[in-house]
Amino acid sequence: MRFYKLDEVPISRDDVVFKESPAVNAIAALILFGIAIAVITCGIEKWPPGKSPTSFLYFAGGMCALIGLFPLAFFRASLKPTNWLLRCQLSGLFIKYRAFENWRLPADTLQVVGFDYGEIAWAKLVKERRKSPNTDGKGGFQIQWLTYIDLGMANPDLSALETNLQAERALRPAGALKLVFMDFPVQVLPGGVIEIRWGNGIRPSPTKALQVIGQRVKILETEHRKTDLTHHDGANPEEEKAKILALANTGDHIGAVKLAQEVYGYNLTQANDYVNGLVGDRPSR
Protein backbone atom coordinates (compact mmCIF):
# COMPACT_ATOMS: atom_id res chain seq x y z
CA MET A 1 0.00 0.00 0.00
CA ARG A 2 1.41 3.34 -1.10
CA PHE A 3 -0.03 6.86 -1.07
CA TYR A 4 0.41 9.51 -3.73
CA LYS A 5 -0.32 13.09 -4.57
CA LEU A 6 -2.13 13.20 -7.90
CA ASP A 7 0.90 14.30 -9.93
CA GLU A 8 3.00 11.50 -8.41
CA VAL A 9 0.87 8.65 -9.79
CA PRO A 10 2.81 6.74 -12.48
CA ILE A 11 0.80 6.82 -15.72
CA SER A 12 1.11 4.42 -18.65
CA ARG A 13 -0.53 4.48 -22.09
CA ASP A 14 -1.86 0.98 -21.33
CA ASP A 15 -3.77 2.07 -18.23
CA VAL A 16 -7.46 1.21 -18.06
CA VAL A 17 -9.04 4.28 -16.48
CA PHE A 18 -12.52 4.53 -14.95
CA LYS A 19 -13.96 8.02 -14.55
CA GLU A 20 -17.08 10.17 -14.60
CA SER A 21 -18.58 10.50 -18.06
CA PRO A 22 -18.94 14.15 -19.18
CA ALA A 23 -21.92 13.21 -21.34
CA VAL A 24 -24.19 12.33 -18.41
CA ASN A 25 -23.89 15.73 -16.75
CA ALA A 26 -23.86 17.63 -20.05
CA ILE A 27 -27.21 16.10 -21.03
CA ALA A 28 -28.71 16.84 -17.60
CA ALA A 29 -27.56 20.47 -17.75
CA LEU A 30 -28.89 20.94 -21.29
CA ILE A 31 -32.30 19.52 -20.35
CA LEU A 32 -32.65 21.76 -17.29
CA PHE A 33 -31.50 24.91 -19.07
CA GLY A 34 -33.76 24.04 -21.99
CA ILE A 35 -36.75 23.76 -19.66
CA ALA A 36 -35.77 27.03 -17.98
CA ILE A 37 -35.62 28.86 -21.32
CA ALA A 38 -38.94 27.40 -22.44
CA VAL A 39 -40.73 28.33 -19.20
CA ILE A 40 -39.31 31.87 -19.11
CA THR A 41 -40.26 32.29 -22.76
CA CYS A 42 -43.82 31.33 -21.88
CA GLY A 43 -43.76 34.02 -19.22
CA ILE A 44 -42.50 36.64 -21.66
CA GLU A 45 -45.12 35.67 -24.24
CA LYS A 46 -47.79 35.40 -21.52
CA TRP A 47 -48.72 31.87 -22.62
CA PRO A 48 -51.05 30.17 -22.01
CA PRO A 49 -53.25 33.28 -21.83
CA GLY A 50 -54.97 33.92 -18.54
CA LYS A 51 -53.85 30.71 -16.89
CA SER A 52 -50.35 30.72 -15.36
CA PRO A 53 -49.21 33.94 -13.62
CA THR A 54 -46.14 35.42 -15.30
CA SER A 55 -44.33 35.73 -11.99
CA PHE A 56 -44.76 32.00 -11.34
CA LEU A 57 -43.32 31.14 -14.76
CA TYR A 58 -40.31 33.37 -14.12
CA PHE A 59 -39.82 31.75 -10.74
CA ALA A 60 -40.11 28.20 -12.13
CA GLY A 61 -37.70 28.98 -14.96
CA GLY A 62 -35.23 30.53 -12.56
CA MET A 63 -35.37 27.47 -10.30
CA CYS A 64 -34.70 25.13 -13.25
CA ALA A 65 -31.73 27.27 -14.29
CA LEU A 66 -30.42 27.30 -10.72
CA ILE A 67 -30.69 23.52 -10.44
CA GLY A 68 -29.00 23.21 -13.82
CA LEU A 69 -25.89 24.85 -12.38
CA PHE A 70 -25.11 21.65 -10.48
CA PRO A 71 -24.78 19.27 -13.45
CA LEU A 72 -22.99 22.10 -15.27
CA ALA A 73 -20.45 22.25 -12.45
CA PHE A 74 -20.09 18.46 -12.55
CA PHE A 75 -19.61 18.60 -16.32
CA ARG A 76 -16.86 21.16 -15.90
CA ALA A 77 -15.19 19.00 -13.24
CA SER A 78 -15.46 15.89 -15.43
CA LEU A 79 -13.34 17.57 -18.13
CA LYS A 80 -10.38 18.04 -15.82
CA PRO A 81 -7.43 15.60 -15.51
CA THR A 82 -8.42 15.11 -11.86
CA ASN A 83 -11.49 13.17 -13.05
CA TRP A 84 -10.84 9.50 -12.41
CA LEU A 85 -11.72 6.95 -9.75
CA LEU A 86 -9.79 3.80 -10.61
CA ARG A 87 -6.69 3.22 -12.72
CA CYS A 88 -5.65 -0.36 -13.51
CA GLN A 89 -2.15 -1.23 -14.71
CA LEU A 90 -0.35 -4.50 -15.41
CA SER A 91 1.15 -4.79 -11.92
CA GLY A 92 -1.48 -3.13 -9.75
CA LEU A 93 -4.15 -0.51 -9.41
CA PHE A 94 -4.63 3.00 -8.07
CA ILE A 95 -7.73 4.26 -6.29
CA LYS A 96 -8.36 8.01 -6.18
CA TYR A 97 -10.36 8.60 -3.04
CA ARG A 98 -10.95 12.29 -3.71
CA ALA A 99 -14.26 12.80 -5.53
CA PHE A 100 -13.88 14.31 -8.99
CA GLU A 101 -16.16 17.23 -8.04
CA ASN A 102 -13.65 18.37 -5.42
CA TRP A 103 -10.90 19.39 -7.85
CA ARG A 104 -10.59 22.71 -6.00
CA LEU A 105 -9.21 21.01 -2.87
CA PRO A 106 -5.45 21.42 -2.30
CA ALA A 107 -3.48 19.47 -4.91
CA ASP A 108 -0.42 19.01 -2.70
CA THR A 109 -2.14 16.48 -0.42
CA LEU A 110 -2.35 12.70 -0.63
CA GLN A 111 -5.44 11.60 -2.54
CA VAL A 112 -4.53 8.30 -4.21
CA VAL A 113 -3.73 4.87 -2.78
CA GLY A 114 -1.98 2.18 -4.83
CA PHE A 115 -1.82 -1.61 -4.44
CA ASP A 116 0.00 -4.40 -6.21
CA TYR A 117 -2.40 -7.13 -7.27
CA GLY A 118 -0.64 -9.48 -4.86
CA GLU A 119 -1.91 -7.35 -1.97
CA ILE A 120 -5.54 -7.98 -2.99
CA ALA A 121 -7.04 -11.31 -1.87
CA TRP A 122 -10.35 -10.97 -3.72
CA ALA A 123 -12.76 -8.56 -5.39
CA LYS A 124 -16.51 -8.58 -5.87
CA LEU A 125 -19.44 -6.55 -7.11
CA VAL A 126 -21.95 -5.39 -4.48
CA LYS A 127 -25.51 -4.28 -5.21
CA GLU A 128 -27.18 -2.47 -2.32
CA ARG A 129 -30.82 -1.57 -1.76
CA ARG A 130 -30.59 1.26 0.74
CA LYS A 131 -33.47 2.65 2.77
CA SER A 132 -32.59 6.10 4.10
CA PRO A 133 -34.35 9.24 5.42
CA ASN A 134 -36.23 11.25 2.83
CA THR A 135 -34.41 14.53 2.24
CA ASP A 136 -37.25 16.51 0.64
CA GLY A 137 -38.55 17.76 3.98
CA LYS A 138 -41.72 15.68 3.82
CA GLY A 139 -40.55 12.95 6.17
CA GLY A 140 -40.64 9.24 5.50
CA PHE A 141 -37.92 7.38 3.66
CA GLN A 142 -36.45 6.89 0.21
CA ILE A 143 -35.04 3.85 -1.56
CA GLN A 144 -31.68 4.05 -3.34
CA TRP A 145 -29.94 1.45 -5.46
CA LEU A 146 -26.16 1.67 -5.06
CA THR A 147 -23.30 -0.22 -6.67
CA TYR A 148 -19.87 -0.90 -5.18
CA ILE A 149 -16.69 -2.78 -5.88
CA ASP A 150 -15.29 -4.38 -2.72
CA LEU A 151 -11.62 -5.33 -2.48
CA GLY A 152 -10.58 -7.75 0.26
CA MET A 153 -6.98 -7.13 1.24
CA ALA A 154 -4.48 -9.83 2.11
CA ASN A 155 -3.29 -7.66 5.00
CA PRO A 156 -6.40 -6.45 6.85
CA ASP A 157 -4.55 -3.58 8.56
CA LEU A 158 -5.81 -0.54 6.66
CA SER A 159 -5.31 1.97 9.46
CA ALA A 160 -3.03 4.13 7.28
CA LEU A 161 -5.71 4.37 4.61
CA GLU A 162 -8.37 5.12 7.22
CA THR A 163 -6.22 7.96 8.54
CA ASN A 164 -5.82 9.45 5.07
CA LEU A 165 -9.54 9.13 4.34
CA GLN A 166 -10.29 10.97 7.56
CA ALA A 167 -7.86 13.72 6.59
CA GLU A 168 -9.53 13.97 3.17
CA ARG A 169 -12.95 14.41 4.76
CA ALA A 170 -11.65 17.31 6.82
CA LEU A 171 -10.18 19.24 3.85
CA ARG A 172 -11.78 22.46 2.69
CA PRO A 173 -10.91 24.60 -0.36
CA ALA A 174 -9.30 28.01 0.05
CA GLY A 175 -11.73 30.90 -0.36
CA ALA A 176 -15.03 31.58 1.34
CA LEU A 177 -17.10 31.23 -1.86
CA LYS A 178 -15.70 27.86 -2.92
CA LEU A 179 -17.78 24.82 -2.05
CA VAL A 180 -16.72 21.33 -1.07
CA PHE A 181 -18.95 18.44 -2.11
CA MET A 182 -19.53 15.94 0.69
CA ASP A 183 -18.86 13.04 -1.63
CA PHE A 184 -16.56 10.27 -0.41
CA PRO A 185 -16.43 7.38 -2.89
CA VAL A 186 -14.05 5.19 -0.87
CA GLN A 187 -14.35 3.81 2.63
CA VAL A 188 -12.81 1.09 4.76
CA LEU A 189 -15.02 -1.71 6.07
CA PRO A 190 -14.25 -4.10 8.94
CA GLY A 191 -12.05 -7.06 8.09
CA GLY A 192 -9.68 -5.25 5.75
CA VAL A 193 -12.14 -4.44 2.95
CA ILE A 194 -11.94 -1.37 0.73
CA GLU A 195 -15.29 -0.35 -0.71
CA ILE A 196 -15.45 1.81 -3.85
CA ARG A 197 -18.82 3.38 -4.59
CA TRP A 198 -19.50 3.20 -8.32
CA GLY A 199 -21.59 6.21 -9.29
CA ASN A 200 -24.05 5.96 -12.18
CA GLY A 201 -21.87 8.21 -14.33
CA ILE A 202 -18.62 6.23 -13.97
CA ARG A 203 -17.47 4.68 -17.25
CA PRO A 204 -16.59 1.99 -18.23
CA SER A 205 -18.88 -0.15 -16.07
CA PRO A 206 -17.99 -1.88 -12.78
CA THR A 207 -18.31 -5.19 -14.65
CA LYS A 208 -15.49 -4.08 -16.95
CA ALA A 209 -13.41 -3.10 -13.92
CA LEU A 210 -13.85 -6.56 -12.42
CA GLN A 211 -12.92 -8.15 -15.73
CA VAL A 212 -9.63 -6.26 -15.70
CA ILE A 213 -8.93 -6.92 -12.02
CA GLY A 214 -10.04 -10.55 -12.41
CA GLN A 215 -7.12 -11.29 -14.70
CA ARG A 216 -4.91 -11.27 -11.60
CA VAL A 217 -7.28 -11.37 -8.59
CA LYS A 218 -9.92 -13.88 -7.48
CA ILE A 219 -13.44 -12.60 -8.17
CA LEU A 220 -16.22 -13.61 -5.76
CA GLU A 221 -19.92 -13.92 -6.51
CA THR A 222 -21.94 -10.72 -6.64
CA GLU A 223 -23.35 -9.72 -3.25
CA HIS A 224 -26.89 -8.37 -2.93
CA ARG A 225 -27.64 -6.64 0.33
CA LYS A 226 -30.40 -4.61 1.93
CA THR A 227 -29.46 -1.78 4.28
CA ASP A 228 -31.87 0.15 6.51
CA LEU A 229 -30.46 3.50 7.61
CA THR A 230 -33.69 4.99 8.94
CA HIS A 231 -34.56 5.76 12.56
CA HIS A 232 -36.34 3.17 14.67
CA ASP A 233 -37.83 3.95 18.08
CA GLY A 234 -36.05 2.10 20.86
CA ALA A 235 -33.01 1.27 18.74
CA ASN A 236 -29.57 0.99 20.31
CA PRO A 237 -27.94 4.47 20.40
CA GLU A 238 -24.69 3.09 19.00
CA GLU A 239 -26.57 1.54 16.08
CA GLU A 240 -28.26 4.86 15.31
CA LYS A 241 -24.91 6.64 15.51
CA ALA A 242 -23.42 4.09 13.10
CA LYS A 243 -26.27 4.75 10.64
CA ILE A 244 -25.58 8.49 10.71
CA LEU A 245 -21.88 7.86 10.13
CA ALA A 246 -22.60 5.44 7.28
CA LEU A 247 -24.73 8.05 5.50
CA ALA A 248 -22.11 10.77 5.97
CA ASN A 249 -19.21 8.58 4.86
CA THR A 250 -20.92 7.67 1.59
CA GLY A 251 -21.63 11.28 0.71
CA ASP A 252 -25.25 11.55 1.88
CA HIS A 253 -24.59 14.46 4.24
CA ILE A 254 -28.18 15.72 4.01
CA GLY A 255 -29.50 12.26 4.91
CA ALA A 256 -27.11 12.06 7.84
CA VAL A 257 -28.26 15.46 9.13
CA LYS A 258 -31.89 14.45 8.71
CA LEU A 259 -31.35 11.23 10.64
CA ALA A 260 -29.53 13.10 13.43
CA GLN A 261 -32.56 15.37 13.75
CA GLU A 262 -34.89 12.39 14.01
CA VAL A 263 -32.71 10.50 16.51
CA TYR A 264 -31.70 13.33 18.82
CA GLY A 265 -34.32 16.02 18.20
CA TYR A 266 -31.71 18.52 17.03
CA ASN A 267 -32.51 21.59 15.00
CA LEU A 268 -30.83 21.90 11.59
CA THR A 269 -27.72 23.73 12.84
CA GLN A 270 -27.21 21.35 15.77
CA ALA A 271 -27.63 18.29 13.55
CA ASN A 272 -25.18 19.64 10.96
CA ASP A 273 -22.60 20.37 13.65
CA TYR A 274 -23.10 16.89 15.11
CA VAL A 275 -22.55 15.17 11.76
CA ASN A 276 -19.46 17.27 11.00
CA GLY A 277 -18.05 16.46 14.41
CA LEU A 278 -18.89 12.77 14.07
CA VAL A 279 -17.07 12.48 10.74
CA GLY A 280 -14.10 14.49 11.97
CA ASP A 281 -13.80 12.51 15.19
CA ARG A 282 -14.16 9.11 13.53
CA PRO A 283 -11.63 6.73 15.06
CA SER A 284 -9.38 4.55 12.92
CA ARG A 285 -10.24 0.87 12.88
Oligomer: single chain
Strand content: 15-25%
Low-confidence stretches: none
Instruction: Say how many strands there are.
Output: 12
What letter string, H or E per element, gives the SSE order?
EEHHEEEEEHEEEHEEHHH
Please identify the structural class as seen in this structure: alpha+beta
| Helix share, percent | 25-40%
What characteristics describe this protein?
285 residues; 7 helices; alpha+beta; 6-stranded mixed sheet; single chain
Please provide a written account of the structure.
By secondary structure, the chain is of the alpha+beta class. It is built from seven helices and twelve strands. The chain has helices at 22-45, 54-78, 159-170, 206-213, 237-249, 253-264, 268-280; strands at 2-4, 16-20, 86-88, 92-96, 112-116, 120-133, 141-153, 186-189, 193-197, 202-203, 218-219, 223-228. Strand 8 (186-189) and strand 9 (193-197) form a beta hairpin. The model has no long low-confidence stretch (mean pLDDT 90).
How is the topology of this model organized?
Layout: E1 2-4, E2 16-20, H1 22-45, H2 54-78, E3 86-88, E4 92-96, E5 112-116, E6 120-133, E7 141-153, H3 159-170, E8 186-189, E9 193-197, E10 202-203, H4 206-213, E11 218-219, E12 223-228, H5 237-249, H6 253-264, H7 268-280
Parallel strand pairs: 6-11, 6-12
Antiparallel strand pairs: 1-5, 2-3, 2-10, 3-4, 4-5, 6-7, 7-9, 8-9
Helix pairs in contact: 1-2, 5-6, 6-7
How would you concisely characterize the structure shown here?
The chain is α+β, with helices and mostly antiparallel strands.
